[in-house]
Amino acid sequence: MKQLRPIILTIAWMVSLGMSASNYGTKADTSIVKKYQDSLAFYKARYDSVVNANAQLGYAKANSRLYQLFSPVLYYNGVTKDLFSSRQKDVEEQAINETLANIYLTRPDLVRGTVAQLETASLPMPTMRETSSVASTIAELSNEAPIDADPEPVEVVVEKPKFWTFKGDGFLQFLQNYVSGNWYKGGESNYSLLSSLTLEANYDNKSKWKWDNKLEMKLGFLTSRSDTVNKFKANEDLIRLTSKVGLQATKHWYYTLQMIAQTQFTRGLKVNDRRTYSDFFSPFDLKLGLGMDYKIEWLNKKLTGTANISPLAVNYRYVDRTMFDNNNGNFSWFPSRHGIDDGKHHYTDFGSQFTIDITWVLAENVKWKSRMYGFTSYKRVEYEWENTFTFQFNKYISTNIFVYPRFDDNRARDDHHGYWMFKEYCSIGFNYNF
Description:
By secondary structure, the protein is of the alpha+beta class. The chain contains seven helices and 18 strands.
């Protein structure tokens, strides 16, 4: 036992030393682990802040265009196009467009390149859908190919808005009717030709002012065997210019000054009658009206046009011709046929007037054009209603039905129709729109 005692004491001391060292090591290890955990939490917080910042950048890219103001200045093709377009834009979009356009015009040296160059450089902007790119760090992005520091000069072209619009349509149509001499119901053969051309030039500055101009020209001839005096007679003859200047009052209403000038090309004749009933500038009507104009856009813009109401209107009529032969060799005062007193060539009426001019697309190949005009001096009334129904067979072939009732109590009263007059025709032929 005495010999084993030193050995036992040595083992007991070593065990005690080991336990003491074990307790000390546990405390040391706990302190290191805590510091390591704190470091992980710190770097996790920094990582989370970077991820959050990138996510906000992706949200801005997906929901607005504010990033264009804080990223390197690039040339965006849509800025100038959107700036001068009539499309409705919110306040933020309009402000961004104006800011970028101002930089393009005043400081082109700040423009670093174009969007196409950015795409070539492979610098994708983070979006909400690309979560992997959201977590990418700034260091990773900086390793991509940089944009050329000295890009080629960018030519900025600003086109002036087009305030003028031009359009028109025309047709040339024929009508032939043959009746043999022994036809049991009688009748006669005849031929007719009808031509029409309408031109429009309209100005709209997309703000307050508009100026609409329409020139209508129609001329048609008729020939029949029973007329031994006149080989050709005009069955349609019109020159009419309508011009309106308007200042916008509300969305659809305009304060308007309207002018209508109207005459004809050639002489107006009747069957087997040498007398002239009308001629160029005989009569010539000039109508001025001050009032309001309403822009019509109904039925998903299938029914379009304007309605003009002029409480203050002037109707001026001038007749250039003086006399005509009444077949008896006597001369009568020509202007009296048009409501002008003997010995005078013109008269002026003051009153009120209205004009309604509409186009209604009834079907893909059926269209109705209608024009209503009325004037009253509170002593006499003049009213006319022109209706043209167009049936389009293809791009160039169509049929027109024209119905035109007219009321004028300033002329001699007819025993059958009174103060009413009627005109109607149906024709087929070529037409062209431009």
